[in-house]
Amino acid sequence: FDTWAPEFKKRLEDVIRLLEQGDEESLNKAKHDVNELVVKRLSRLPLAPHAFLSPMEINIDNEASPYTRLIVISEDTPAFLYTLSNALSLQRVSIKHVKIRTINRRIEDEIDIVDSRERKIEDPGMLDQIRLSVLLTKQFTYFLGNAPDPYSALNRFEYIVSEIVRAPTTGKWLDLLSNPYTLQNLAKLLGTSDFLWEDFIRVQYEALLPLLKPHIQKKRFSAPMETLPRRLTEALAVAHTFEKKKRRLNEFKDREIFLIDLDHILNPDVDFDDLSKQLTHLAENVVRAATEMVYEHLAERFGRPMSVAGLEARYAVFGLGKLGGADLGYASDIELLFVYSDKGQTDGEKSITNTEFFELLVRETAQAIEAKREGIFQVDLRLRPHGNAGPLACSLERFCKYYGPGGPAHSYERLALVRLRAIAGDRDLGAQLERIRDEIVYLSKTIDLKELRELREKQFREKASGRRINAKFSPGGLVDIEYDVQILQVMYGKDIPDLRTPRMRDALRALAKAGVLAPNESAQLLGAYNFLRKLVNGMRMLRGSAKDLDLPDFDSDEFEHLARRIGYRMEGGLGPAQKLRIDIETNMAIVRAFVERHFGRESLPDPETGTVVDLVVSDTVPEDIRNRILSSYGFKDTSLAYRNLRSLAKHDLTGKTFIQLVALAFDILSRTPDPDMALNNWERFIYSLPSPEFHYKLYLSQPMRLEILLSIFSGSQFMADTLIRNPGFLDWLTVPENLHKTRSRKDLEDELRMSLESSLSHKVWLNRVRRIRRREILRIGTRDLYLKIPVGVVTLELSQLAEAIIQVCLEGVWKRLVEKKPEFEEFQDKFCVMALGKLGGRELNYSSDIDFVAVCDPGDWGFELAHRLATVMEHLRSDLSKHTEQGYLFRVDLRLRPYGESGELVSTIPGILKYYRDHALLWEIQAALKMRPVAGNLKIGLELMDKLRPIIMKRRPREAIVQSIEKMRKAAIEKSEKALGGATVDVKSGEGGVRDIEFLVQGLQLIYGADYPELMEGNTVKAIKLLENLSILPSDVASTLVEDYYFLRKIEHYLQILEDRQIHALPRDKDQLNALAKRVLGIDSNAAKFMGEVEKCLTRVRKMYVTYLLGVIGLD
After folding, report:
1. ∠ CA 84-86-89 to the nearest 5 degrees?
2. In this structure, what is the dihedral angle of CA atoms 589, 591, 597, 603, given to the nearest 10 degrees?
């Protein structure tokens, strides 16, 4: 609760603030934000599509109240009330009252509604419409996790439903819209693209919905590629005029694009490569048909273009860019180059020159292929000679002069010819021009690399130099891999004919085959290329634009939508956005490393760019850039961090897993209090594992395991050392029931007893119990550091662990003694261990001493029994404090027993009662407030407490109590200040520290104990609550005391857990203080803020100590 409550409060306040603003934009934003939260939660539930679709009955009562009452009966399902109320709000009705009734999993809710005029809804048709719409929308909501943009999907679904429920043919849609698989696909489709919605789905939903039914049987929406030419020919054959042919061509094209997109969106078997092949095939056929259609239309008007030899002039159409590379994506331009063979005249009555004819051919072909939106299958002719300033059609002669040696073409224009591929027109001319291209590009030195680099830098400055990453133009983006692979093709293509290919994937394979790229490098680059193409395609589909390729902020809803659109889903604790971010950083770093490896880092448009992934995939990143990258993640010792990183990377033998993991790991590390310490410990841990690579894969599939691991490594060196020595503890630790539940004392004792009984020797037992304690401290510490459980729970669990260990160790002592001296068996029920101090109050720190005394019921044995049982205490103390190879259990302090170090190890009950009645000093009486039985025969201890309570709580002079306490406090403060030299703060013994709170509370317990015996309570917080309930402390003071006590104890915990040492002074080192600040107050804190909070706390505590303790006798 302490972890998620502040975040929930902030989100709730943000939504309420939007609602209070009241304008339409704010209301929609509030709906959108809440919907996103619900969808993210639903997407984490591993349920089958039909799991949510339980029957729902909606009855309507218009008699029982001034409102229309909906009585909803159904099985309870996740977010039921949200989905139901959401469906009602989309019907433009207002909810006035809600009565919720849930019995087991069955709900019977009553919802009072009115129309937009605040009136009861009585029209039967409207009520039926509401009933049906609510039912469908409520069911649909459960599938919004499949939608890239859930809020848009919900609004669009409601539009479709509102149209259907008003239609006379409503019935025929109900079965389809009630099918979970239909709803699942529809959610994905409606939330994918504004363009698809506006241009296709909204106006054609009646035609679309039946298409979803065959898809349930895994059929494709689009027809096989090989049928496309025939179907296109048939579509055009029914049109008998040029204008009708154009219209039919574009209708065919648009429908094919839509069906191809549907396959890609809804069919998991259709990957981006399939999409690309289908779109390329469609584009080639559309261009071919459009060109032939326009050619015949122009020939009818002007005749056919002829050459001087009386032969018909030939022409060829070439694809460039993505079309030439047979790699079209959604919203890719159709980049074309038209080349004709000969100059001359047409042979018609209205004769024109061939140049004019082919100019018209290009212009009208481009006009015939209509783009529904800018960049969606839009013809681009800018890659022709002289660009926009040159003629639309290029003669063969002009092509050779422009691109050939000595021609005016820029190097980037010649490089673009690598992707040139004939797609229409005369095949012989197309093949001829491709051979000429090979001569120009591969066999002549016509490309200047310096010029290409200058262009790349210009692109970067103009299109990607802002704060956001551009998927195409930022360093490591799509352009870098395309340009540089093409450059390698040009460099080596003269001697390696296989490199003379327009297809990127074929080029990468050929480069690997030729040895230019290492096999692993080629595979990585192919993966990076496919990823970046998929990323760009997803962005274009989501935005309906070919131009805006700046990535959304990683923490934005749009980025989450993009991740879902590309196909990422919640898996193994990693959300879609996290997975996409990892892949972006990984693949762009791979591309940067490729460029650096083959052309030098200065070839990147911004050599300063880089992330931690660059440091793994490249070992030549300059030191200054390396240090800047690591510093950005919060590392102080960047040299050590780099060595740690490279060491971790070398354990990944395949070179694949850690590259992906490192982006996730360093994102987690950047949010830890001490990244340097965490990374160094992680490296040490990996060296202790038999199969580091297996663990890397495990962390990638279970990122929360990695979060737990790094939180331990950043929070406690002691816990890190424990885990490094015992790596198997991690598997046990991450079992949910071990991590998320408080282990009872009985559960701990049962495990310890099993270990005791199975130990073959005393030595084995001592090591086993120490190992169990270390493991349990690791578990409790992880709950503290990672789950942020309350301080009171931490102290309770540490105390219960200590109690269980003392009890079972005592049982082990008795067992050994009875084996040697059977007469000891009858003494077991006469012995009890009484805790004092932190253990007595159930308030143990990680490194607290344990204070206890032993008592016995002497019976007929008298004092002799106490003397004989001293050996039990000696053995118990030894078992608890002795050092073995597994360390020690506890530092045991027996000095609080009667007469201190000179007293007997075991006291009889009469003897201890007499001591406290007649001899104990006031500070000993004060210490006895925390006494309680923890091991042995607890009944004896409880009986002792009943007899001891009147002695401890008897009325004493206030002045004596306060003066005794103040004397101890002054001595402790002076001792602390002398030891620390005033250079730092002691949060335990210094002014305003924990001791001020404890002694204030204990002083009031002693002062008022005679009147209120129930004040004999060893736990400080419980005692404060008692003092508040008895009106001895004002409520606001009591609350502040509890908050400050927990704050100071939390500081104590994090100081002690760091190295398992009794430390109460804040560190002097600024970096250490910063780390402590982040552990205590959160990752966004720092030393200055932390010290400000500490000073305010100490001042408050001291003031309360003075006011409510010293003030009672006028010492303030």
Report:
1. 115
2. -100
* Residue 90 confidence (pLDDT): 67
Q: Which two tokens stand for residue 595?
A: 């460029």
pTM flag (> 0.70): yes
- DSSP H helix total and E strand total for the chain: 47, 15
Euclidean distance between the first and final Cα of the chain, in Å? 39
pLDDT in tens, 658-696: 998 999 999 999 999 999 999 999 999 999 998 899 999
What is Dmax (Cα atoms) for the chain?
139
* Distance from C-alpha of 154 to C-alpha of 175, rounded to nearest angstrom: 19
Structural contact between residues 439 and 521, judged by C-beta atoms closer than 8 angstroms: no
Q: How far is CA 596 from CA 452, 586, 606, 630, 808, in A?
A: 15, 15, 12, 19, 64
**Three-state SS letters, 360-387:** HHHHHHHHHCCCCCCCCCCEECCCCCCH
How far is Cα of residue 645 from the mean position of the Cα atoms in its chain? 22
Q: How far is CA 207 from the centre of its chain?
A: 39
Question: Which residue in 599, 565, 477, 579 sits closest to 528, CA to CA?
Answer: 477
Three-point CA angle 333, 335, 337, nearest 5°: 165
Among candidate residues 259, 402, 403, 284, the one with its CA nearest the CA of residue 335? 284
Give residue 1015's identity as a one-letter amino acid code: L
d(CA 1021, CA 998): 9
Q: What would the pLDDT profile of 527-583 be if each residue is shown by its tens digit?
A: 999 999 999 988 888 776 667 789 999 988 889 889 988 888 887 778 889 999 999
Helix (H) or strand (E) holding 1078, with range, is: helix 1070-1081
Look at residue 2 and tell me whether its pLDDT is greater than 80.
no
Q: What is the CA radius of gyration of the chain?
A: 39
The residues, any chain, with a CB within 8 Å of residue 1022's CB and separated by 6 or more, are none
- Contact at 8 Å (CB) between 751 and 772? yes
The DSSP letter of residue 200 is I
Q: List helix spans (H) across 378-426.
A: 396-403, 411-416
Residue 916 near residue 951 (C-beta atoms within 8 A): yes
For residues 505 and 485, the answer to whether their CB atoms sit within 8 Å is no
Pairing state of beta strands 892-893 and 850-856? parallel
For the record, the structure tokens of 866 come out as 């106490």
- Between helices 657-669 and 576-599, what is the axis angle to 10°? 120
